[in-house]
Design a protein that fits this description.
With 345 residues, the protein is α+β, with helices and mostly antiparallel strands. The protein contains nine helices and 13 strands. Helix 1 packs across helix 5 and helix 2 packs across helix 5.
Length: 345
């Protein structure tokens, strides 16, 4: 299997917020975040739950998922071992460092200069996770239980992803089995992030990850503490998502935007670094089709009033685009904008 671009991010300019100060336009209201109880997919409430998922994808591009059946011990184990990895001696982590962003296992750190001093903004470890038996031997061997705990979580969160995707394509009127085989054979990338405490003066100027959308079909985020912010597509206001123990956040990725013919827009999000006392740890699981599987607009979603809005593409096409344009300074949704088909006036 060929390598994936390890970042899997499409960056956006930081000017997309209306905020004039760090938190001037951040909404803390839990009621504004769509919350989906996954138990509703398994019984008489399935139809209404699928409808709620579709509405969340359409209105926000993200939602919070509760009662997903992943054991709390599995969630805690994954977050704890992720934190333990980032706490390893620097020389041990550096063995996994690579300048090759297509490496199947890659550790890296991002630095910034704050008030004349260089600070670590973010550390990350990214690796392929499906099929697990193909990649797990390449994962870190330390901590000793890393492969067991991250492997267990990756398998469980993939089960959730497949069920959520089944509901999403059903909400689009495509049927529960649309793309089922392709998703079963698709790719999963685990992205572990650590954000050191903010050491700057108040307010913290640091941004752990700049505004971006994920180049995936969906991304599932597990976070240990608050920090994840979403851009409301209707108000253009940033919302700091509330942290609820055991819940997961689902993001609409660029390729789901294509599959939905633009009905579901990619979730634009960023991570703030605002904790002065402890490191924030999160784990993102990115789910896509296989490297050469073309993602296209389904015929069922193309009508006289809703013409085809995107060209087909694959992950390999995306990698080629990045390779060709890596020195061009392109920002924003450059790739998906390229896929959009301009409609005649």
């Amino acid at each position: 299997m060929s390598s994936l671009r390890s970042l899997f991010l499409v960056h956006l300019p930081c000017s997309c917020s209306k905020a004039t100060t760090r938190y001037a336009a951040i909404c803390m209201s839990r009621s504004a975040v769509p919350v989906i109880d996954m138990r509703g997919l398994h019984g008489l409430l399935r139809s209404s739950t699928v409808s709620d998922i579709g509405k969340a994808c359409h209105d926000k591009g993200y939602f919070q998922l509760t009662n997903h059946s992943i054991a709390s011990s599995t969630l805690d184990g994954a977050l704890d071992v992720a934190a333990a990895f980032f706490d390893l001696a620097t020389d041990k982590k550096l063995k996994l460092m690579s300048v090759d962003s297509t490496s199947p296992v890659r550790f890296s750190l991002i630095k910034e200069v704050v008030m004349g001093q260089e600070q670590i903004q973010r550390l990350f470890l990214k690796h392929y996770a499906h099929p697990l038996e193909e990649w797990i031997h390449m994962w870190p061997s330390e901590p000793l239980d890393y492969r067991t705990k991250i492997g267990t979580y990756s398998v469980e969160v993939r089960k959730v992803a497949l069920q959520v995707m089944e509901a999403i394509v059903e909400s689009l009127g495509l049927g529960r089995d649309y793309l089922k085989d392709q998703l079963q054979d698709g790719l999963q990338v685990m992205a572990l992030h650590a954000y050191p405490p903010c050491a700057s003066t108040d307010p913290c100027p640091s941004v752990g990850i700049a505004p971006h959308s994920d180049y995936s079909i969906i991304t599932i985020v597990l976070q240990k503490s608050p920090g994840l912010e979403e851009l409301d597509p209707k108000t253009n206001i940033w919302q700091l998502l509330p942290h609820q123990y055991g819940s997961l956040f689902i993001h609409v990725g660029n390729h789901l935007e294509v599959i939905s013919n633009g009905l579901y827009k990619s979730a634009v999000h960023k991570v703030s670094v605002n904790d002065r006392h402890k490191t924030r740890v999160s784990i993102a699981s990115l789910h896509s089709l296989s490297m050469d599987e073309k993602v296209c607009v389904p015929d069922n979603l193309v009508t006289e009033h809703t013409p085809k809005g995107y060209k087909e593409s694959s992950l390999r096409d995306f990698l080629r685009f990045l390779s060709i344009n890596q020195d061009s300074g392109l920002q924003g949704n450059a790739y998906i904008d390229m896929l959009k088909i301009k409609q005649a006036d």
